[in-house]
Amino acid sequence: MTSTHLNQRTEQTDVVVIGGGIIGLAVAYALAQRGRAVTVVEAARIGERAAAGVAAGMLAPSSEADLSDPRLTTLALASHAAYPAWVADLEQASGVEVGYDATGTLLVALHRDHLALIEHLHAFQVERGLAAERLTGAQARDEEPYLAPGIAGALRMPDAQVDPRRLLRALPLALERAGGRIVEDTRVTAVTRDGDVYEVTTEHDGMASTLRATQVVLAAGAWSRQIALVGLEAATLPMRPVKGQILRLRGERLLRHVIRTPDVYLVPRADGEIVVGASMEEQGFDARPTAGAVHDLLREARRAVPGIAELELAECGVGFRPALRDHLPAIGNIDGAGLFVASGHFRDGVVLAPITARLLADLVCDGRLDALLEPFAPGRFAPASIEVTR
Ligand code: GLY
After folding, report:
1. Is residue 331 over pLDDT 50?
2. Beta-strand (E) ranges in 278-346?
3. Is 277 in the pocket of ligand 1 (CB under 6 A)?
4. Which of 53, 256, 303, 312 is the least buried, fewest Cβ under 10 Å from its Cβ?
């Protein structure tokens, strides 16, 4: 990868994408494929602090459908459907295989409470026409012999998975081969406007530079609020980080399907790694792994698949999901001109990457707003007055 630092005080490009996480890179790649000169500015090294760098990579629009806003499920289903073609193009363009695997997901019930939840989800899926198949405990164990003996029942869903770390390797290569540029270890401190041109002020190693562009995409995830939009009438985003702790276990391959219970998920990779996740914590940007979260994840994972106790505990990772007040993403224009946002993807950044990239590129390049994006308008957080009755 030929990532560079800015080497002149002022440089010019068509579009600056602020943030080199999965959303920023996917959007930048879609723009580069449409012939735009794109520069991605990333505050760290690519993958170093991206939420996707610790994500498990479940592409799971069905597994949480009853808990999600139906408009988000609709968007996630569209993105899930786009995944195979998106991955095929990316693998071809980058030469990196990204671990897309459509074996499917088993949501397993370990006891009667879980069974009631699963039955509720299944009824909801049937009502909404989502594919899912009820299995008995014995049928689930036929599929996955390492599941605990007492499984009360399961749901099989066509939810797939991908390896997000591989995506974070493939996307920069594909982007650069399509003519895009990545600038790492460079913080964006401010965005201002000079007539029709945006000025993106950056800082690297104490040196300030300016990137001038006709359009800017803000895709800085949980850090999106830290970029000062100076003198711009732009929608404000009530973004906060939601900490997630996740574990990587390694050893003999125990599973083929993604295994979930209502309390934990286990995502198996072809090389024997199992990703176990994830905590949901309101701890700001506290990046410490904690004994309590690791204990809870391992306890729940071991209840579902006792054999994991023999695997190596290879990594405890911490990531920060970008969460808006309603836990839905913000994808669209934020100033009525050339400033756009694609952020707040919360638990769904990996699954939503292809559709976010395609639809935002439609908007940036052609001014075309797809109806799928209407619920995710960034302006929806404009302060409304609250009447207090005493
Ligand atoms: N996408 C699952 C999580 O955020 O834990």
Report:
1. yes
2. 312-323, 330-333, 339-343
3. yes
4. 312
Q: Indicate whether residue 349 lines ligand 1 (CB < 6 A).
A: no
At 10, the pLDDT band (50, 70, 90 cuts) reads confident
Residue of minimum CA distance from atom 3 in ligand 1: 347
Ligand 1 nearest atom to the CA of residue 349, by list position: 1
Q: Is 345 in the pocket of ligand 1 (CB under 6 A)?
A: no
Centre of ligand 1 from the C-alpha of residue 52, in Å: 10
How many residues belong to the chain? 390
Local structure of residue 44 (DSSP, 8 states): S
The CATH superfamily of 103-158+241-323 is: D-Amino Acid Oxidase, subunit A, domain 2 (3.30.9.10)
Instruction: Report the nearest-CA residue for atom 5 of ligand 1.
Output: 278
Measure CA of the first residue to CA of the last residue in the chain; give whole Å: 62
* Residue 260 CB–ligand 1 contact under 6 Å: no
Q: What is the pLDDT of residue 388?
A: 78
Using the CB atoms, write b or e for 77-90: b if 16+ within 10 Å.
Answer: bbbbeebeebbeeb
Pick the CATH number of 1-102+159-237+325-390 from 3.30.70.270, 2.40.110.10, 3.60.15.10, 3.50.50.60: 3.50.50.60
- Model confidence over 156-192: pLDDT tens digits? 999 999 999 999 999 999 999 999 999 999 999 999 9
Name the band, by pLDDT with cuts 50, 70 and 90, for residue 235: confident
pLDDT of residue 8: 65
User: Which atom number of ligand 1 is nearest to the Cα of residue 348?
Assistant: 1
| pTM greater than 0.70 (yes/no) | yes
